[in-house]
Amino acid sequence: MVKIAVLSDVHGNATALAAVLTDAKANQVDDYWTVGDITVRGPESERCMDLLDAVHPSAYVLGNHEDNYRKVLAANPDTFTKPKQIMSTILTDFDRRQLSPKHFDQLLHLPMTVTKQVGSLTVRLQHVLTDYASGHALAPIAEQANFDQAAVGDPDIVIYAHTHQPVMRYSTRGQLILNAGTVGLPTAINPKLRQPRASYLILTIDETGVQNIDYRSVDFDWHRAIVIAEEAHLPYFDFYAKTLQTNAYQYATKAVASYNDQHDMAQLARQILNSNNH
Questions:
Q1: What is this structure's pTM?
Q2: How far apart are the C-alpha atoms of 207 and 264, rounded to whole Å?
Q3: Residue 9: which of 33, 34, 31, 30 has the closest Cα?
Q4: What pLDDT, in 10s, does the model give residues 68-104?
Q5: What's the Cα-to-Cα distance from 48 to each of 108, 157, 178, rounded to whole Å?
Q6: Domain of 226?
Q7: Where are the alpha helices (DSSP H) in 175-235?
Q8: Number of folded domains in the chain?
């Protein structure tokens, strides 16, 4: 029997990640898999990587925010000007200044998918689809065809991330599709379901197959996480703090665009991109 902690969407929140890893250790987890977005938006991407190094995950896959690192490094200052692109540029620069060269390079070169063989089961990890790490294709109530597309090929189990919502679905061929939720940025659409807790899951597989799927919800000191972000002068701090305070998504494009205009973030992003090109 093997017990695997599935971690996704940490978003630089080392306070939440530390709480999750403590819970996983108490549950005698054997292995750790990460499913993208370890970094960006929170203040402690380097500490997150250090915490993961200490437990030696056997799988890492690319999230859309790690993919944004690549896009920012290759960006043209004249065309990379949409509101979320401006934010990505500034948050990537923040992370790059704190991440060790080793960790930054590791995050730049994560694979889109990882396939694990556990006993008789083939398990594939991907942030969204096998060839695309972003978008809303696998929202919890998305069409069945989208989940069939996510399960293309012959995996018995597909594990994805990105939605920040715990999900259990099946493909039309009966493949199990799981989402562990978010470690670092807890959000929910329904106000009655919003909780300031870190989500992950423990997948237990034995010789008979899947023995248990344990969706975990772990308390963490979100007040402290906000203080850490403020002390670190985290860009877009207000968005991060309000997300942790309300457990509602705050990064809507219109809100980001308004913030960018008010604080001249486009000029800062241009300066960063020009610096990257020299």
A1: 0.96
A2: 58
A3: 34
A4: 999 999 999 999 999 999 999 999 999 999 999 999 9
A5: 16, 27, 23
A6: 2-276
A7: 222-231
A8: 1
